[in-house]
Amino acid sequence: MSYLIDGDTGPWEVVVGLEVHAQVSSKAKLFSGSATDFGAEPNSQVSLVDAAMPGMLPVINGYCVEQAVKTGLGLNAQINLHSVFERKNYFYADLPQGYQISQFLYPIVGEGTVTLDMDDGDQRHIGIERLHMEQDAGKSIHDQDPKRTLIDLNRSGVCLMEIVSKPDIRSPEEAGAFVRKLRSILRYLGTCDGNMEQGSMRADVNVSVRKAGEDYRTRTETKNVNSIRFIMQVIEVEAQRQVEVFEQGGEIIQETRLFDVARNETRAMRSKEFAHDYRYFPDPDLLPLNLDQAFVDQIKQTLPELPDQKKDRFISEFGLNPYDAQVLVQDQEAAVYFEQVATGRDGKQAANWVTSNLFGALNKLERSIADSPISAAHLGKLLDLQSDGTISGRIAKDVFELMLVGGGDPEQIVEEKGLKQITDTGAIEAAVDEVIAANPQQAQDVRDGNGKAIGWFVGQIMKATGGKANPGAVNQMLRDKLTSG
Amino acid sequence: MTQLNDLTITEASEKLAAGDISAVELAQSCLDAMDANRALNAFITETPDLALARAAASDQRRAKGALAEVGAGALDGIPVAIKDLYCTDGVLTTAASHILDGFVPPYESTVTANLLEAGTVMLGKTNLDEFAMGSANVTSHYGPVKNPWTLDDGKDRVPGGSSGGSASAVAGNLALGAIGTDTGGSIRQPASFSGIVGMKPTYGRCSRWGIVAFASSLDQPGPMTKTVRDAAIMLAGMAGHDPRDSTSAPVAVPDFAAAMTGDVRGMKIGIPKEYVIDGMPGEIEALWHKGADMFRDAGAEIVDISLPHTKYALPAYYIIAPAEASSNLARYDGVRYGLRVDGDSLDEMYSKTRAEGFGEEVRRRIMIGTYVLSAGYYDAYYVKAQKVRSRIAEDFTTAFTEVDAILTPTAPSAAFAIGEKMDDPLAMYLNDVFTVPSSMAGLPGISVPAGLSDEGLPLGLQLITRPFDEETLFRAAGVLERQAGFEAKPTGFGGETADLRTNGVLS
């Protein structure tokens, strides 16, 4: 379904491109050996290079280069064997060098594609324009002192990958799906932890609107949006704003905007805040980055199975429908969990248990799959107990609840709580006879042909046996006793 | 009567080895000369205590037979002066700029660390043009440096720049040797003006780590000494691959002094016709011809060559160097170290700090550099200048298919009086006309004192060789030095020739 804004002059299409800044998961910074741990004491992870002391020089961190190449390969993108670090010059108190070392004309990764599975079952292909490496700046803290701004340089020099999409995104939902998919790929690759709340991922959101069939109109760029929800909100409110401007006869100017979360609106930054001429030029302290194909091929060998490939395999190997498969592969740990449960068992049944029961329960508990109280091995065992008839489906759900609370081996729980399904016909018959004897009127109803009443009897007998009676056996026996006579 | 501070490194090294003198005596002799010649303003910071302590440590090493390994201890105990562009651990480092007020680095540059490892004794930090931007050492926040060479016209001469303090210190026998940095001629031109040897190695031969950056793609450390052999010995103690500088070359350091065989028979020396420039004094051209004759006399072959893009080198240099400088100097913002002039906003703090902290020439180059990198001008200036730079490098590559070394004048004039050319930046920039092309190509070059001007001031000739062929450079320079037989000494500086301390060692 296309996302259109209904204006007074008719429908408007939204055109979105994202620039996602993803922090490379590396122990050391891009051009210095300083640590990159989140949450460290301010200015405790700052080297002479990060603080731009006189005479200090950057030296490229080879690990970061590998991660960028790996990410490029994961985005099905062109790897550029020749790339160049340039200086992006501007003054700011948390930018010690007075320039950011970035890549401009020659990025390390060129065009690629990310495939999105939309909720309506459609697939969308979003083009990747480029990926380049750059240094992060430090942090300016304005709210800890009434008169002064405090500077924390811990982030100064941390390696970021800026991943730029083509303007292929057409709705807030697609933008959300794009960022989720990108995050999923990065996490599979292990090149970025994707923790937006820690600032490991953030996005600049480029938005424009247009009438059907038109060329692109002027876009605005809303900077530093740090959650998927906010990215989607920015697109909604900014597109709406632009439509209103156009319909009132105004023009959109290309500008940098900020998202005001509290007021749910975007605001233009003061012109001074973005009126930069960055004066890019190749950083003379660094040689051009020249990679050989063997280096790239070697990284290719280490690529894990990525979400799209895993999804295809889950469909073919476990007979899942595309939706379940897509849900299961989003998170690599969930996919691994599922696969452990499903291997050697009924894949669809495993998928049901994982996607509805387990995910639902984890959601309520606000826990991630990594600290699920139920291990994949135990969930698998539970499925086995159900499929071999040891317990009924209903009892299985009860055991699942018990496992959620106390963990543990389902076999043991079934044993300890005496939950094994009663398949002994004698015991079932005794219970059936007892219930029929106690309820002569209802028994007569059944005999008189009221088929529905038999269900009531099943319920009563299950209740009497604590749910352990095999429901099939109960049903059969009731029919034998009440309708054949 | 020769004093210890008058010795060359080679001579002092021999005397130290023979036990005739101690490193402490040698250092003290230099410290006394520094004391007596403060009028030269060669040093921004003197480090006498550190010098004597290091000299004493050297004497102890010698006593224990544990001399530094570099050059078999040839530099152990040798007192040297360090251009104040090198960061020195615990010692004020200023780049001759107000903006680095009070900056004491907690680290030692690679080159000075190498020299320490070689056993040298730092006497102090020498004056220079602010941020190495200048050709006369008149832009220093700490005042101009005087050339020990004077005439009887009562005017003080500039020592050249930017390594003017180092040149003056060596020429005035305040130090046995010094280190400078050369971006477009900042070692070679002052060497020429001061009658000493100044050598710029191949770009990448020495590490730039810990040197206050001027123009990163051009800056290169080098020795400034009394003789060619001393330069070869010092360079061996400075050079080497440094993983902390990505532009430092992973090449071995040869025994440069050993390459000085004194034999240039069959060597082909190129004379580039484009180095004859308008307005060049006849005495410079005459000296150049004389230099060619000296090589011919020594058995070398003189070959006329062409370096067709030479005339574009200077304008291209004055685009590239300021462009890089404008960015390199952005870090001096008053936030973390050095001078801060408070303002009501961050921007005001920046502009007040930088307006007060940088001198006129530095501000000029920051503005030029900012301009040529600006949107709309970048292609016309910076990109074009880089293309010119490539053509210039190709010129040299082509020339070196025919010749082994190139001989040129070092500078288009002898030392001028302090105050001259101050109001004409273009005239000042012309000082680098012969040194800039090889800098742009990253080639090694050396200035050797080869004669006196008609007035009696020293003039140097420059030799240039292929990249990383410093051995040929030193071999040719050694022969030029021998053939030129430059013996003149500066006279009359500092009012007296220092105190006539007798130490019983020297005759």
Per-chain topology:
The complex is a heterodimer of chains A (485) and B (507).
Chain A (H helix, E strand, L loop, with lengths): L3 E4 L2 E14 L38 H13 L7 E2 L1 E5 L9 E5 L8 E6 L5 E13 L3 E3 L8 E3 L6 E7 L6 H18 L11 E10 L9 E6 L2 H20 L8 E5 L4 E4 L2 H4 L6 E2 L6 E2 L2 H9 L5 H12 L3 H8 L2 H11 L4 H19 L10 H12 L5 H14 L3 H7 L8 H14 L1 H8 L4 H13 L6 H13 L2
Parallel strand pairs in A: 12-13
Antiparallel strand pairs in A: 1-2, 2-10, 2-11, 3-16, 4-5, 4-15, 6-7, 7-10, 8-9, 11-12, 13-14
Helix pairs in contact in A: 2-3, 6-7, 6-8, 7-9, 8-9, 8-10, 10-11, 13-15, 13-16, 14-15, 15-16
Chain B lengths: L8 H10 L4 H14 L6 E4 L1 H17 L14 E5 L26 H8 L3 E6 L37 H8 L5 E6 L5 H7 L2 E4 L19 E6 L2 H11 L29 E5 L9 H16 L3 E5 L4 H19 L17 H12 L2 H13 L6 H21 L5 E5 L15 H5 L6 H5 L4 E8 L5 E8 L4 H15 L23
Helix pairs in contact in B: 2-3, 5-6, 9-11, 9-12
Task: Please summarize what this structure is.
In chain A, 40% of the residues lie in helices and 19% in strands.
Q: How does this structure look, described?
A:
The complex is a heterodimer of chains A (485) and B (507). Chain A is α+β, with helices and mostly antiparallel strands and 485 residues long. Chain A is 40% helix and 19% strand. In chain A, strands 1, 2, 6, 7, 10, 11, 12, 13 and 14 form a nine-stranded mixed sheet that branches. With 507 residues, chain B is α/β, with parallel strands linked by helices. In chain B, 36% of the residues lie in helices and 12% in strands. In chain B, strand 10 and strand 11 form a beta hairpin. Mean pLDDT of chain B is 95; it is low at 494-507. Chain B has a domain at 8-261: Amidase signature (AS) enzymes. The chains are: A alpha+beta (485), B alpha/beta (507).
Could you tell me how far the N terminus lies from the C terminus of chain A, measured between alpha carbons in angstroms? 59 Å
Topology as H/E string of chain B?
A: HHEHEHEHEHEEHEHEHHHHEHHEEH
Largest interface: A-B, 31 and 44 residues
Shape of chain A: elongated
Biggest sheet of chain B: strands side by side, in what order?
A: 1-3-2-4-6-5-10-11-9-7-8
Shape of chain B: globular
Under the CATH scheme, the architecture of the domain at 8-261 in chain B is Alpha-Beta Complex
Secondary structural class of chain B: alpha/beta
Strand content of chain A: 15-25%
Q: Uncertain regions of chain B: pLDDT < 50 for 5+ in a row?
A: 494-507
N-to-C CA distance of chain B: 6 Å
What's the CATH topology label of the domain at 8-261 in chain B?
Answer: Amidase signature (AS) enzymes
How many beta-strand runs of chain B? 11
